[in-house]
């Protein structure tokens, strides 16, 4: 029985029983590890939507509106979700306002609206880790590209903008403690930024990849584990464990075999990488493609043991998938999002079997966010 | 352009803003329509300002010339050479942009689409 059939039968039974219809505003179910957020940047439209879905049942349980290329975040403990957004006084022109909104995870009511001074948001196709919450959920960190690289600190606890931190020529934000985060720098190193006590202390790690090893815009990162998983265009996987003190790099490995690479297999899509913390597994979207078609959809996911680099599975998705993620429970769901189909396909991550799907998700859905609640 | 070198103060809007404000920044920089003969040259190539720090005397002009097909410009943030930001036009290969610096000071700049390209003009 489909969801619509179930609701129809329920309504018919109520009618037969003489129960009156009392329209109310619903609450969403409490957040859990299988709740999934689908952000739709809508191909650069001035306004956007995010769909909140129960991965277990494939039901849309709520929605949030956003402005231009908003960035979604979700507290790992499920206590709230938020976004950094941008609006203009005349739809797509006029005075620009950047702001951060925090939402109650059950009522979806905005519980904070914090303006960001001087429109500092980096307007860019949404990359999952271009903004981040600190692990204590007290601050939201966002990136500024122009006129100079900087990271904005938004104090969620006191509901106010704190300050901009000057940083080197580095991108993305990976928090490792309440006051330390890492960024990936043009010179091939990571920057460690400590912003405790009103200071900004920046140090750089060693250079960990060559200039011709192109790291994609969509690394996977676990806030809870501190694990950063960063593929290149060819599927070479760099990993680092980020702690408050330091970044320690793991031995890189190839996600694709020599034969596959010879046969034109490469990663591709949007959010191409997922990391399952409890099982220490990496999921990577791959297909056969030209070298410079790295943003087209893929039809396969390789599953890799992050500790050994060994291939566990190669799953055939059955659809043109642009973005993937996984739920962080012991028997995870694998989420495969097709921007073309505007559909979220939900799979069993172990077998790759497609369980259900959710369609009509906006104009070009691209970003999948979850709560990592089983600490 | 076939015209003689003609000094032109900043864009009208900037000049207006300065006139109504303190006016102290009005003479710090003059944008020039063409490269003066005696200008000091900063070449731009391989995603860099080749002389990222140049020291000149008050009244000297500087000409930036892009040597590569990647477009670049010169961008001073608000408050550096004027109350408003001065965002130079994008230079294609072999194009130039010139300015005269009239007051001692250190003026930091960057390239708008490449914020990692940075330079400074030190005026003695
Ligand atoms: Cu440039």
From TrEMBL, chain A:
Its EC number is 1.4.9.1. One of its GO terms (biological process) is methylamine metabolic process. GO terms for cellular component: periplasmic space. Keywords: Disulfide bond, Electron transport, Oxidoreductase, Periplasm, Signal, Transport. InterPro entries: MeN_DH_Hvc, Metamine_DH_Hvc, Quino_amine_DH_bsu, WD40/YVTN_repeat-like_dom_sf. SUPFAM superfamilies: YVTN repeat-like/Quinoprotein amine dehydrogenase (SSF50969). It catalyses: 2 oxidized [amicyanin] + methylamine + H2O = 2 reduced [amicyanin] + formaldehyde + NH4(+) + 2 H(+). Its main location: periplasm. Disulfide bonds join 170-185. GO terms for molecular function: aliphatic amine dehydrogenase activity; methylamine dehydrogenase (amicyanin) activity. It is an enzyme of class 1 (oxidoreductase). The keyword RNA-binding does not apply. Pfam families: Me-amine-dh_H (PF06433). Coiled coil: none annotated. It is found in: Periplasm. Belongs to the aromatic amine dehydrogenase heavy chain family. Methylamine dehydrogenase carries out the oxidation of methylamine. Electrons are passed from methylamine dehydrogenase to amicyanin. Tetramer of two light and two heavy chains. This is Methylamine dehydrogenase heavy chain. It comes from Paracoccus siganidrum.
UniProtKB/TrEMBL annotation, chain B:
Residues 40-124 form the Blue (type 1) copper domain. GO terms for molecular function: copper ion binding; electron transfer activity. Pfam families: Copper-bind. Transmembrane segments: none annotated. Keywords: Copper, Electron transport, Metal-binding, Signal, Transport. Residues 1-26 form the signal peptide. InterPro entries: Amicyanin, Amicyanin_Para/Methyl, BlueCu_1, BlueCu_1_BS, Copper_blue_Plastocyanin, Cupredoxin, ET_Amicyanin. SUPFAM superfamilies: Cupredoxins. PANTHER family: BLL1555 PROTEIN. This is Amicyanin. It comes from Paracoccus siganidrum.
């Amino acid at each position: 029985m489909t969801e619509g059939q179930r609701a129809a039968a329920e309504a018919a039974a109520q009618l037969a029983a003489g129960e009156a219809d009392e329209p109310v505003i619903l609450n969403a179910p409490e957040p859990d590890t299988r709740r999934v957020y689908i952000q739709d940047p809508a191909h650069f439209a001035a306004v956007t939507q995010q769909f909140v879905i129960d991965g277990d049942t494939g039901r849309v349980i709520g929605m949030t509106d956003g402005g231009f290329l908003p960035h979604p975040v979700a507290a790992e403990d499920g206590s709230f979700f938020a976004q950094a957004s941008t609006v203009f006084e005349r739809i797509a022109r006029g005075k620009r306002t950047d702001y951060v909104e925090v939402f109650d995870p059950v009522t979806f009511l905005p519980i904070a609206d914090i303006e960001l001074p001087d429109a500092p948001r980096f307007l860019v196709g949404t990359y999952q880790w271009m903004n981040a919450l600190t692990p204590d959920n007290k601050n939201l960190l966002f990136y500024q590209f122009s006129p100079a690289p900087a990271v904005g600190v938004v104090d969620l606890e006191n509901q106010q903008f704190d300050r901009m931190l000057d940083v080197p020529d580095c991108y993305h934000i990976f928090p490792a403690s309440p006051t330390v985060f890492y960024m990936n720098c043009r010179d091939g190193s990571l920057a460690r930024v400590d912003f405790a006590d009103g200071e900004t202390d920046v140090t750089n790690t060693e250079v960990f990849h060559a200039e011709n090893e192109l790291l994609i815009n969509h690394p996977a990162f676990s806030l809870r584990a501190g694990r950063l998983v960063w593929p290149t265009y060819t599927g070479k996987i760099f990993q680092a464990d980020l702690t408050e003190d330091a970044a320690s790099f793991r031995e890189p490995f190839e996600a694709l075999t020599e034969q596959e690479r010879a046969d034109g297999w490469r990663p591709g899509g949007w959010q191409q990488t997922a990391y399952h913390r409890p099982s220490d597994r990496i999921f990577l979207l791959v297909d056969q493609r030209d070298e410079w078609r790295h943003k087209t959809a893929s039809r396969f996911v390789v599953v890799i043991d992050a500790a050994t680099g060994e291939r566990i599975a190669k799953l055939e998705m059955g659809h043109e998938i642009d973005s993937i993620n996984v739920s962080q429970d012991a028997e995870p769901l694998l989420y495969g999002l097709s921007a073309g189909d505007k559909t979220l396909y939900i799979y069993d991550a172990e077998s790759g079997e497609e369980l259900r799907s959710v369609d009509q998700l906006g104009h070009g859905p691209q970003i999948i966010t979850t709560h990592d609640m089983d600490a | 352009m076939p015209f003689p070198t003609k000094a032109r103060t900043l864009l009208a809007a900037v000049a207006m803003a300065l006139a109504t404000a303190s006016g102290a920044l009005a003479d710090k920089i003059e944008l020039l329509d063409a490269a003066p003969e005696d200008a000091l040259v900063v070449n731009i190539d391989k995603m860099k300002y080749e002389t990222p720090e140049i020291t000149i005397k008050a009244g000297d002009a500087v000409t930036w010339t892009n040597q590569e097909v990647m477009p670049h410009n010169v961008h001073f943030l608000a408050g550096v050479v004027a109350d408003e930001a001065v965002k130079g036009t994008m230079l294609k290969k072999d194009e130039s942009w010139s300015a005269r610096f009239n007051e001692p000071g250190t003026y930091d700049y960057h390239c708008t689409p490449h914020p990692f390209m940075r330079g400074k003009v030190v005026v003695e």
